[in-house]
Amino acid sequence: MTRHGARTARQAAKPGKARAASGKGRHPAAGGRGRVLVARLDDVGDVLLTGPAVRAVRTLADELLFLAGPNGRRAAELLPGVDRVIEWRAPWIDHTPPPVSGAEVDALVSALRGVDEAVVLTSFHQSALPLALLLRLAGVRRITAISNDYPGSLLDVRHQVDESVDVPEAERMLAVARAAGFDLPPGDDGRLAVRRPLPDIRGLTGQLPGVGAGADEGTYVVVHPGTTAPARTWPAERHRQAVRELADDGHRVVVTGTERELTAYVAGDVAVDLGGATTFPELAAVIEHAAVLVAGNTGPAHLAAAVGTPVVSLFAPVVPAERWAPYGVPTVLLGDQHAPCRGSRARVCPVPGHPCLSQVTGEQVVKAVRELMQ
User: Fold this and answer.
1) What torsion, rounded to 10 degrees, do the Cα atoms 27, 87, 199, 193 define?
2) Greatest CA span in the chain, whole angstroms?
């Protein structure tokens, strides 16, 4: 068990073809940098971690567009400061990449016309240069990104980082925005955040006796058993046992996720099963009103960070926790962070028996939940 991050008091107010959708709650024009695009083309959690960088860009952008992949779009729509979302599936980033298509490229270039400036955000194993080329074809005049490879005329601001140093991903991306000349507004603490208000969830959590839409905040534990990569997944039977042990310890438990068979199995007859029952904003609200979230290294763990809920993180070390653990909230890491899979970036466990997580017990989860609720 590893403590990750400082323990802090929870804040009272917790903080296909290219196609666009309008965001809600447009901010007043701030600083004359024109129409600025922020890009992050992978998954929900990755997009949520762009939040501080997005807010920094929004301080000077007259309009902020966000370019997201199909897996990250719903998170982009929930970020404060985003005016419009453009969706595009990048062949060099998507986990099941589509073939390169001239028609799809043309559609993206067309959707990007009129953008004045772009801030391209990437993970340490991704290249910003393919997108930078398409942005140039769309007429974007100023482009900022991390590139340790020679970018030629594709970038105006080439931000270089020492990738041997593990920096939290949210801070790494904020540094790119700062390199482009944007910074957080006064009073912004740099944590993750979501657009407010979140939906009323009484129709969902009302299945738990005594749990309302907000007045009974912190009265249940959310367990989210699914992940996008098998290497990051705690076994389903361990989740089910942990739910029973949490219930035996006096906790009311809610199980969330999109895989209904999995959530039904994990919930059993002792927890509320919300599998497939929530929109992404509703999931945010369910997690916000929980005392603790129990989840692997997956999008809802970063969603918990964005709504200020502590996390018991079942964290496989295939990527570094220093970069990818829930950011800015009290967290307990469970899992062997020195297992042989460490740093492999594997999506399927490369070690027989999945030792980094298979040794974690339900008792450890209960103990970690107790610790975070003290």
Assistant:
1) -60
2) 62
CB 293 within 8 A of CB 325: no
Using DSSP's 3-state secondary structure scheme, residue 15 falls into: coil
The pair of structure tokens assigned to 160 is 């270089």
Q: Please say whether the beta carbons of 285 and 199 come within 8 A.
A: yes
Q: Determine the Cα–Cα distance for residues 374 and 372; give it in Å rounded to an integer.
A: 6
**Taking the model in full, what pTM does it have?**
0.89
pLDDT per residue, tens digit, the chain (374 aa), is 555 543 333 333 333 334 444 444 344 445 689 999 999 999 999 999 999 999 999 999 999 999 999 999 999 999 999 999 999 999 999 989 999 999 999 999 999 999 999 999 999 989 999 999 999 999 999 999 999 899 999 999 999 999 889 999 999 999 999 999 999 999 999 999 999 999 999 888 765 654 444 435 568 999 999 988 787 889 999 999 999 999 999 999 999 999 999 999 999 999 999 999 999 999 999 999 999 999 999 999 999 999 999 999 999 988 999 999 999 999 999 998 888 888 778 778 888 778 889 899 999 999 999 999 98
Distance of alpha carbon 199 from alpha carbon 307, whole angstroms: 13
Best CA proximity match to 31, nearest among 3, 60, 4: 60
CB 293 within 8 A of CB 222: yes
What does the alpha-carbon distance between residue 274 and residue 189 come to, in Å, rounded to a whole number?
A: 32
24 to 3, 7, 125, 308, 316: CA distances (angstroms)? 37, 33, 32, 22, 36
